[in-house]
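Quick one - inputs below.
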Amino acid sequence: MTFSMKRVMAIFQKDMKDLYKNMYVSSTILMPLIFAFFYGRMDDLTVEVHFVVINLTLAIVTAFLQCSIIAEEKEKNTLRGLMLSPATIPEILGGKSLVTFILTAITIILCTMLTGYEPTNIGIIAIAIVISSLFYIALGTLMGLISRTVIEASVLILPVMFIFGFGSMFVPFAEQYPILSVIDYLPNIQLVELAAAVEAGSGFGDVLGNLGIIVAWVIIGMIATVIVFKKRELDE
Amino acid sequence: MENIIEVKSLAKIFGNKAALEDVSFQVEKGETFGFLGPSGSGKTTTIKILTGQLLQTSGDATVFNLPVTSLNKPSYRKRIGVITDNSGLYQRLSIYDNLKLYCDLYDVPTKRIDEVLEMVNLTEDTKKVVSKLSKGMLQRVTLARAFLHEPELLFLDEPTSALDPVNSKHIHDGLRKLNEKGTTIFLTTHDMSEAESLCKRVAFLHKGKIQLLDEPKVLRRQFSDSSVTVELKDGRELNLPGGSKGANEIYKYLSTDQVVSIHSNEPTLGDIFVEVTGRELV
Ligand SMILES: Nc1ncnc2c1ncn2[C@@H]1O[C@H](COP(=O)(O)OP(=O)(O)OP(=O)(O)O)[C@@H](O)[C@H]1O
Ligand SMILES: [Mg+2]
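Output:
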């Protein structure tokens, strides 16, 4: 198996140029920024509020971006050309994931500047967000493999936005309805819990449980992606 | 002569309908091979199987002496170029940026872009955004992209179907140059004169099988009844048998200065196809 960084970067540059001109997809970046702007005008934000914006970014920027740039390659028949070229699937997905990762990082940094979030331990928070973003990239890849068009991608993103973007709103109900307690194990809720613990003075060792659950989600997401990919490899 | 493609008893069944039943042929290294057949006869299907985009139902197909299913390594991909009816371009990017991506993927220097755009007569339009191009221009960009890495083997599925005669000729010249430099070309077309002028050998695909396969001029001779048509000054057109039987009569008209023109009735590839398949090539 060869893996060429040059080809990854070729895909990366192409997708960056393309997104720059793709208003429909790139304007989704504005949504969390708008939220962040309005939250930022309020005083004394809790860590939960900061993470509403961050989780929203992960759901609609990270997952949606990745999903729609993969779906569009299928919709416009450009994926065929890439597959017939020396580029391999890991290289193609690598280039796209890099685009998504960098745009996610920029958006989150801008959001935290707007909301004025200054974590007590920036190292732990950064690691947790990076690991979380891997999960959302895997989720976006999975949805991208399933959807055939950008419009389908836009529909698929709705439940993702609902569950992962606004999931923390359902946490209070979990106490009333025990069946909803599974929500606690979602990666977005784990991320908020972790951040709250860090704010309360926890160190790296104290949040390993939360990180472990998020890592488990990354692994599940990657395995699911590989399975779906293998199933669809020789279609038509 | 070394074979670059070998196909034996190839069959492809979609659902319960056979697109290819029993197809066998070889393509020699260095030749331009024409793959002709009516719409829906399975030309594109064959190209897809040979380039690993589709799995055959049965039969063997090898390219570079390797089963087509094992050709997905980058090192083999570099040796092959493919254009099919669904070769997409990035609509929001310029012609240059589309080609730049493929230069990087194939490890070709970007100065090659000017050369291939010259081959397809698009040197003036480098900066144009693809979404603003006409159908024929799109087809030429796709061709340029396939020429970038000077592949050893080039599959072209109806490369000039959207082009005017001037651009078709320009592309034909480019294809001949590529061929002279060593590229083997596997070409499908509905344009019989294109097949005749470019291809060393042609195959007729019909009803899931190869019905004929030879050099165009051999086929034309084989299907010729050697008759001639004589046009006379009084407006009559006579169809005369070839050989000594017709010669006397032709001499008679010639010596009395009645002849406007004489044509031998060699069939075109299109005529031969109609005769073999009993239907028009569309
Ligand atoms: N993915 C597919 N699923 C089902 N049937 C298919 C598929 N692809 C092709 N076919 C069928 O296989 C047959 C051959 O199609 P193919 O596209 O190879 O024809 P073709 O010779 O390239 O025609 P044309 O000259 O119009 O391009 C057709 O009957 C077509 O309907
Ligand atoms: Mg076809």
